[in-house]
Amino acid sequence: VYLMDIVAMGGSAFSDGRLKEILQAPEVTKLMYDCRADADALYHQFGVLLANVYDVQVAYCTKRDAESRHRDRFVKGLKSALADCPSLTPVAKADLDALKTRGVALFAPEKGGSYRVWKDRPLPPDLVAYAAADVCYLHDMFIAWKRFCPPPRMQIMVDRRIREAV
Questions:
Q1: Helix/strand/coil percent split, the chain, to 5
Q2: Are 20 and 42 in contact (CB under 8 A)?
Q3: Bond preceding residue 122 cis, omega within 30 of 0
Q4: What is the pLDDT of residues 19-77, one digit of tens each?
Q5: Could you tell me which residues come within 8 angstroms of residue 30 by beta carbon, excluding any fewer than 6 positions away?
Q6: Is the whole model's pTM more than 0.70, yes or no?
Q7: Residue 6 contacts residue 30 (beta carbons within 8 Å)
């Protein structure tokens, strides 16, 4: 997992750092979980139009619908998907939950934190780990669930989601 410090690098991360080139590259698959807000922010703040995104949330919802007799019309957050992630052991899940609790306590005002902590440098180690934690499981979820929504079908769905979000 690579974290890009956009607060410190600003727009140069997308130009000098070539992040825009990677995010818009049709030959590079980007795994995301619910890409809509990220697509909107990247486009309006940095002129980046995401390409070739595989949205693991869509795969998870498609999987869940295929395995259930009753279709759930509510989209599920990453926490629900992680609970169903094949590689997340009970011990790893407990560790992830503890890390998420510590991270939220740093930035959520209702938990005693402050959003300002995201602008402090260096970032607290728990916040760095919090930012990277969920991403570690996207590949495993992609591998396990891509049969429910193969990449060509996903591309049609995600392109529409990105257009609507932007």
A1: 65, 5, 35
A2: no
A3: yes
A4: 999 999 999 999 999 999 999 999 999 999 999 999 999 999 999 988 886 666 666 78
A5: 23, 50, 52, 53, 54
A6: yes
A7: no
